[in-house]
Amino acid sequence: MIYVTRKEHFNAAHKVWRADWSEEKNTEVFGKCANKNWHGHNYDLYVTVKGNPNPETGFVIDLKYLSKLIKSEIIEVLDHRNLNLDVPFMAGKMASTEILAIEIWKQLAPHIVTHGCNLHSIKLYETENNFVEYFGEKII
Amino acid sequence: MIYVTRKEHFNAAHKVWRADWSEEKNTEVFGKCANKNWHGHNYDLYVTVKGNPNPETGFVIDLKYLSKLIKSEIIEVLDHRNLNLDVPFMAGKMASTEILAIEIWKQLAPHIVTHGCNLHSIKLYETENNFVEYFGEKII
Amino acid sequence: MIYVTRKEHFNAAHKVWRADWSEEKNTEVFGKCANKNWHGHNYDLYVTVKGNPNPETGFVIDLKYLSKLIKSEIIEVLDHRNLNLDVPFMAGKMASTEILAIEIWKQLAPHIVTHGCNLHSIKLYETENNFVEYFGEKII
Amino acid sequence: MIYVTRKEHFNAAHKVWRADWSEEKNTEVFGKCANKNWHGHNYDLYVTVKGNPNPETGFVIDLKYLSKLIKSEIIEVLDHRNLNLDVPFMAGKMASTEILAIEIWKQLAPHIVTHGCNLHSIKLYETENNFVEYFGEKII
Amino acid sequence: MIYVTRKEHFNAAHKVWRADWSEEKNTEVFGKCANKNWHGHNYDLYVTVKGNPNPETGFVIDLKYLSKLIKSEIIEVLDHRNLNLDVPFMAGKMASTEILAIEIWKQLAPHIVTHGCNLHSIKLYETENNFVEYFGEKII
Amino acid sequence: MIYVTRKEHFNAAHKVWRADWSEEKNTEVFGKCANKNWHGHNYDLYVTVKGNPNPETGFVIDLKYLSKLIKSEIIEVLDHRNLNLDVPFMAGKMASTEILAIEIWKQLAPHIVTHGCNLHSIKLYETENNFVEYFGEKII
Lengths: 140, 140, 140, 140, 140, 140
Known about the structure:
The structure is a homohexamer.
Chain A: E1 2-14, H1 23-30, E2 39-51, H2 63-78, E3 81-82, H3 97-113, E4 118-127, E5 130-134
Parallel strand pairs in A: 1-3
Antiparallel strand pairs in A: 1-2, 2-4, 4-5
Helix pairs in contact in A: 2-3
């Protein structure tokens, strides 16, 4: 079993905000992340796939394909967008890094499994100091 | 003469957009940077000061002071904000990295000169792939 | 289950040295790391916490809280200090990166568990080429 | 149990290519990685060893020894070489990052185990955007 | 005057080698860089353009244009290629980083000047430890 | 004219401290950098040399030579040492990054000029957030 990772990135605006809370309550709980006029980040996304190398190619998965898949399913949807307003798969959800990583997993996992390997993890950097990892529903 | 640099960072939302243009014209000229609902970045800011080391301390400028100055004058104003809507010194200006670097220079230069040294450059990274440098009005 | 990581850093002096050995023996075993007048590093510390996102906030843990906790319990104690001489929780212990990571775990774990999640790992970089990870007593 | 990692690097040429396929088929499957006149990379190699710290030294493994071992067994053999033509342990194998990581594991694991600890993983970056990890035959 | 930089990258094989010298002489002068079967690098290329921001757009140069220009003129020609064998503008020249930077300047400068600004520098990283800068014929 | 840079690094202890001042005055002026039991850093050193490429080799300077020179004259003297106590060329001087950069210049410049090129700059990182540059006595 080998784990293969592809890194992609996107730049997006968001705020951490509950519409059913007042601006005061949002600021009290979320601090400056709740700035009502938004802020943004350069997100780095690491997608890790696991499987056995194909004896013919030496590849677990064709990284050209993996890169294209991440770009078409995720980067096209998130890059230069507002995570709260512009992204169908985030509609009605909190725009935290945790929730975004889980939703990216849901978008990618069904595609990976059709290529004879499995999605292992989504690692998402909001800044170089803050990042999350999600491994799907299984316990590691 | 020694050049001393301090790096700070901030996360902000912006769009590259002219209010006197239609959405179509903005998109035609600025591409995805004109997304009307904003996008954002993790900006890295490098402030370089030049002068001679003080014989008593060995310092051109006290970096604790320089860091506090950048934080109070720039980071507090830009971090977790919208560059187009929330920043007094960017009001009515294009929120390009070029213009932002020039305006940061204008905020900092008068403070530096009172400490026996001079502001040399503002280097501002919008992403790891795009950055600008400004050296004030002199020609280098 | 989501894994959330916060990075902090500190600069410290240390030597790898046993007081019950001669200088010769220390140098023979530890090489230049045993320089009797100390040397030092810029340490990068990654603290990873695991749990389920709170449905109300979308957060596993409030990163503002986690950052403050690491700063008050660890960075205040280690930054710009001598790991062998100045740090109560390292007293009488070898100042290796391995031992330091274990002791940082012991300082932080009791605080994390009171916030409805668990400490998952301490990752400590001594240089960009050397780092250690500790996952507590459990076997992973 | 503590996990200790040492990073080393090497620069090498390779192509992803099957001699039993035509140039057209190689290009169709491997794209520009099959350029017949080679291309190359700055590879970063992370070797992780696990064990308990020695109570006398505080070390899981002497990193000076680990660095020397990686240099003598791996870097001397791969650095400024052609992975397809110059490397005995890659002879007759696909020069993919996956296969190279597995072969590096096979070279290092027997040496590590004689030092009272175990090889945990080989992490190999081909570029900053593409990397693989191998944990030996066990399932993690 | 503002300086705007765009970073791009490419992966290539090369050797530092004179065909009019014996293999022994090449190895004596160029060391392991003369490995006859090639080696390679992940090159990072920084292209800096200088000019005044356009009052209408706030841009010195449209970075989407600059990125496309570097990709079409340089990256398409160098990426996943052999610098000694595959690159028309390097034919008959030493494949050192210095010479490569000068030749990249010659390819790009005529295009930049047609956009109302000037090429300022080419900065080319061969590894993170070795890089060169070229500012054209003028003396800085 | 081409500018060629080599990066090396060293790890050292220091304190910013005047022996003719009380501990209280040292702390008042230098803050935590004056911790009497030292602290330390991973320093990154960039040495830039300028000249014309040799037509025979394509090199401004042989980087193997430059790396060896920096290692023998600087890294051997500074690495895993105490800048205040162990370094002959820093004796009696403030151990600030500014002064250290100037003294490194003085050590290296006479060697570079004997190779048909000139030292252009010393760039010294104390942390990723603080660095200095020195260009010798000339005004740039």
